[in-house]
Design a protein that fits this description.
Blueprint: H1 9-40, H2 43-70, H3 73-96, H4 102-130, H5 136-164, H6 168-185, H7 202-215, H8 217-246, H9 251-278, H10 281-295, H11 305-317, H12 319-333, H13 339-367, H14 370-390, H15 392-395
Helix pairs in contact: 1-2, 1-4, 1-5, 1-6, 2-4, 2-7, 2-13, 3-4, 3-6, 4-13, 5-9, 5-12, 8-13, 8-14, 9-11, 9-12, 10-11, 10-12, 10-14, 13-14
């Protein structure tokens, strides 16, 4: 009889530890631009620091995936949590003693970005070794709920703590990384049996991951659709906030908009395992496309921030189901020795879209009247939705997930 996830000690420790880490990271992420703005008085400098963090994670992404597939994944996560705790702890000490400068902040965010580029693929790749294949989709959905919950709680906490003391949000993140490190110490992940490749073959391994992703029709098409949808949604998100400010929507309502997006994601993640089992794979994937396409134009006529927030919540509700279907399929399709590279390739692609999307949204807001800008973004999303709907690869996505290759050795 399969042990329920609620009694799976290793998965439970991983989930709680990563929830703390994500909440701490979200608390400092909201505080970072406020800190740089307080130091320099420059909004441009704040944006540059956040851009540096994203750039570090993207640049390190592909090599990180290959390293995760070479190294012990539990050890990778442990080292990353320890390094992040030390880096953020150093920033706290500098702020406490009033010796922090912008260069130190930049150095810290670069370290954090590189660590995340390693720890996230390591966790993704290790997940199939921690839970049975029959429970993988549920674990993926619970991880999505954890991400939304951590972002929502951390963002609210970070702003509050920064108002009390500048160093407090970062102290919380440092403590969260320490707690996650302790939790990871007690997790048992089966040892992988893999012949260590020569160091000179590292570039070949990175290229091998890219080639494998491109050679898999389902993975390739899903990646294209996910990148496009992420780009359009990020553009739309920035547009709606800019338009709300232009229309004089109070700042507290704009904050509620962002919170409702997270709340919709949490609710969607909680029902995602049931919807994943009830819907055909193609239906569960394209439902989020059609939902966002139908709801986007309504933002042009939304009367206040609460109505827009309700649209955000509805858009986010079906996303975890599509993510559960896609991620479960990809993890089971991908050989264990390539799972780190799969996660890193997808992370880099989606991260690039997340950075490009706001730039596109800002350009459209500057170029067009608010309503036309929103409708233009909605039209692009509609075209992508039609492509996903009629694409033969997605339409014939199997009802049954592929069987995970058995590549693990005896337990530690």
């Amino acid at each position: 009889m399969t042990t329920p996830l609620s009694r799976n000690r290793d998965y439970r420790l991983l989930w709680v530890g990563q929830a703390l880490s994500e909440a701490g990271s979200s608390a400092s992420t909201i505080a970072l631009p406020l800190l740089v703005l307080a130091m320099t008085g420059s909004a441009a400098a704040s944006g540059l620091v956040l851009g540096t963090a994203a750039a570090a994670q993207l640049l390190a992404g592909l090599p990180a995936g290959a390293l995760v597939d070479r190294w012990d994944r539990r050890r990778v996560m442990l080292v990353c949590e320890a390094v992040q705790a030390l880096a953020v702890g150093g920033l706290v000490a500098a702020l406490w003693s009033d010796r922090a400068g912008v260069l130190l902040v930049v150095a810290v965010v670069v370290v954090l970005g590189v660590c995340r580029s390693l720890s996230e693929p390591a966790e993704d790749a290790a997940l199939p070794a921690l839970v049975p294949e029959s429970q993988l989709s549920t674990a993926v959905a619970l991880n999505a709920a954890r991400g939304y919950l951590g972002q929502l709680a951390g963002t609210a906490l970070g702003g509050l703590l920064f108002g009390l003391r500048r160093w407090l949000p970062f102290a919380v993140e440092a403590l969260a990384h320490v707690a996650t490190f302790v939790a990871l110490l007690f997790i048992r992940i089966p040892t992988r049996t893999r012949e260590r490749a020569p160091a000179r073959h590292f570039r070949r391994e990175v290229a091998e991951g890219l080639k494998w992703v491109w050679a898999q029709p389902v993975v390739r098409v899903v990646a294209i659709c996910a990148i496009g949808l992420n780009l359009f949604f990020q553009a739309f998100y920035l547009m709606v906030i800019a338009v709300a400010q232009q229309r004089g929507v109070p700042s507290e309502q704009i904050g509620v908009m962002a919170a409702m997006l997270g709340a919709g994601g949490i609710l969607g993640a909680l029902v995602a395992p049931r919807l994943h089992r009830a819907l055909r794979p193609h239906t569960s994937v394209i439902a989020v496309f059609w939902g966002i396409t139908a709801l986007m134009p309504l933002a042009a006529v939304a009367g206040n921030g609460y109505q827009t927030g309700a649209l955000f919540a509805a858009m986010a509700f079906l996303a975890p189901t599509a993510n559960t279907t896609i991620t479960t399929y990809q993890l089971l399709l991908t050989p264990d020795e390539l799972r780190g590279r799969l996660s890193s390739v997808m992370g880099v692609a989606l991260g690039t879209a997340a950075i490009t999307g706001p730039a596109v949204g800002g350009f459209l807001v500057e170029l067009l009247p608010p309503t036309q800008a929103i409708l233009t973004c909605a039209a692009g999303t509609a075209l992508l939705t039609l492509y996903a709907t009629v694409n033969p690869t997605l339409r014939h996505l199997s009802r049954h997930e592929p069987t995970a290759p058995a590549t693990t050795g005896p337990g530690e």
